[in-house]
DNA sequence: GGAGTTTTTGGTAGCGCTACCAAAAATATT
DNA sequence: AATATTTTTGGTAGCGCTACCAAAAACTCC
């Protein structure tokens, strides 16, 4: 014969770890739970008198709203996952900064995910973070596994893909025409009269945006009747040291190189600093151009010519596009080209 | 007379937005919902046969676990808020990187919060993120509002405070003795024979760790019979440009300064690069020391002498301490001194 | 074959809040 | 004063999963 079951109100979970709930606040304030919920979330629907009582009870009891329960009840949280390929590259750091600042000011929280340039890892990460019923998602880049694209499209909530612009994106896209940006620097070097122009990068097997810029670079050179195949790369992550190394490798392999288009400013800066140490005069002996627009570029000797990518603004804009969608506004186009600009300085 | 109420099963929320639930998976696999939950979360408690059926159903239906509901049911999520004062300062970026990589590899997600050095904002942020029933929290620094300290202590889950070490911390503390680190550089400069040593910083009204290092610097100098009051600062955030500016201000105000202790490497690097442009020979005319250990320090000409703070490792360690606590292990002490090291290079 | 133990599977109330429906109170209009 | 409308407040089932309790099945030992 079955043992006697506990009465409903005797059957409690998590014995011994009681936290103040909205129910407690309601009892303390002498109102219904839904009135407490309204006082906190839509105060304009509650009379001043009751609002004051609720606020007093919240303070007195030290109540912290359980956003998990609220999220379950309302089918969503104020969390926004931001998925980037790397947290050790300044590009993404500044973008995250722009996103985080904008979202936090709007009362949202950023859930940070890093894929290490692995699309399978990205797919698993997306599945994981969607479990938190976020309000929207911000992804980096347009390259994903088909499963990821299908999942996010089917999900039906706002998705922003940032960094490079493309013609096929899940929901919204903000960034720059990365190939054009590469072509811009290549054109600049050609117009400056350099003839033996190399492209130097690292980790380009994973960083397809750098590959796009190299392809554009190559096209510009070949259209100008120059050799576009001068490519030097290794598998290291981008760093000053990697820039230093690949710079020396390139000059040793091809001493007649008269200009170098670096895949990014970290590499270019590493090269310029090494050139300074070795007495290689930039741009007299070899011109150097970069990509990104790191603030360091303005302080080097010589100051670095670079293509400036508006990273912080990209983050801000991605967040704003998402927030507008969430608020039912359509202030932004679905695809926003932030543009880049060529900062011509002393190194070319 | 009251209108007829909907039957319970006819009364549904969120009409028109059905997502696959664990219940659907259970029906499809022909098992109870709790068996699906077990298959996904504790598979060793489910027979192979049923596990396979569940996995198949998950794939077929494209089920994504609702972590909100799971979090409510189990009184917690696998989210870890990480609260830092700024996302534009490399120090914290590298720490976040260490945290995020370690937590993500352990199946946790980082919720990113930034306080902009405002303790009131920090208090509000803490209240907000606790609402997600996180497993633990990582804070930056030991200075908080009393309300924040009380709240986190009462919360009763793991809390790690990182960056500087102290004697009073909420739960766990990992970092370095920041005053000693400041004293270390000051001692080095004194031992090198410099007599007119200035301390240069920015934003020190907010950055109390920099103030601690200055106080320690001052003590070392005065104990050596030197003038410890040579302090130059402004209110800008730390940047190469700020470093450049405050460097020129200091030299103009006190041309006899023969060494400078910078509050961080960004400032020091800005100064070195400006010195290069203006033909000021470092360390011959003025020695320069920094704090942090930025990788840039090794590439400047002259290479920067600095106190290296293990930032990435600090992040990794903070995350590991939290994870150990969550797993019921006690591999780490509650207070971990990571130590710093003085990297003596060419600039002193 | 039966008793005892362990493993596997299941039922369901509850986690905390809110969407939905509705009642009560207050205000405006006639 | 009565009626109509608007504002404010309330009841409760349900959001999706799981802790807790329990039953069923499988296994071991005698």
Automatic annotation (TrEMBL), chains A, B:
InterPro entries (alphabetical): HTH_LacI, LacI/GalR-like_sensor, Lambda_DNA-bd_dom_sf, Peripla_BP_I
Cited SUPFAM superfamilies: lambda repressor-like DNA-binding domains, Periplasmic binding protein-like I
Molecular functions (GO terms): DNA-binding transcription factor activity; transcription cis-regulatory region binding
Claim: RNA-binding is one of the keywords in the record: no
Keyword annotations from UniProtKB, A to Z: DNA-binding, Transcription, Transcription regulation
PROSITE patterns: HTH_LACI_2 (PS50932)
Residue intervals of the HTH lacI-type domain: 20-74
PANTHER family documented for this protein: LACI-RELATED TRANSCRIPTIONAL REPRESSOR, TRANSCRIPTIONAL REGULATOR
Name of the protein: Transcriptional regulator, LacI family
């Amino acid at each position: 014969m079955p043992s006697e079951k506990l009465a409903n109100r005797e059957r409690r979970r998590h014995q011994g770890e009681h936290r103040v709930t909205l129910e407690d606040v309601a009892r303390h304030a002498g109102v219904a739970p839904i009135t407490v919920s309204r006082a906190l979330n839509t105060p304009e629907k509650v009379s001043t008198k009751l609002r004051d009582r609720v606020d007093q009870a919240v303070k007195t009891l030290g109540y912290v709203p359980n956003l998990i329960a609220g999220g379950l009840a309302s089918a969503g949280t104020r969390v926004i996952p931001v998925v980037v390929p790397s947290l050790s590259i300044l590009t993404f750091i500044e973008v995250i900064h722009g996103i985080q600042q904008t979202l936090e000011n709007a009362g949202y929280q950023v859930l940070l995910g890093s894929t290490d340039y692995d699309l399978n890892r990205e797919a698993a990460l997306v599945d994981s973070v969607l479990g938190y019923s976020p309000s929207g998602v911000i992804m980096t880049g347009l390259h994903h596994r088909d499963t990821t694209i299908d999942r996010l499209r089917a999900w039906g909530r706002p998705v922003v893909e940032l960094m490079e612009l493309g013609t096929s994106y899940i929901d919204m896209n903000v960034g720059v025409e990365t190939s054009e940006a590469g072509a811009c620097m290549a054109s600049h070097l050609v117009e400056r009269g350099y003839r033996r122009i190399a492209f130097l990068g690292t980790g380009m097997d994973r960083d397809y945006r750098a590959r796009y810029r190299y392809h554009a670079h190559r096209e510009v050179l070949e259209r100008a009747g120059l050799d576009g195949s001068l490519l030097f790369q290794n598998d290291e992550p981008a760093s000053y040291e990697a820039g230093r190394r690949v710079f020396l490798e390139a000059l040793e392999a091809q001493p007649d190189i008269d200009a170098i288009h670096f895949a990014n400013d970290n590499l270019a800066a590493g090269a310029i600093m090494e050139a300074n140490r070795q007495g290689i005069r930039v741009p007299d002996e070899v011109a150097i151009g970069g990509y990104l627009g790191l603030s360091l570029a303005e302080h080097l000797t010589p100051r670095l010519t670079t293509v400036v990518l508006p990273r912080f603004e990209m983050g801000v804009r991605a967040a704003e596009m998402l927030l507008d969608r969430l608020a039912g506004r359509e202030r932004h186009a679905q695809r926003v080209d932030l543009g880049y600009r060529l900062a011509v300085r002393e190194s070319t």
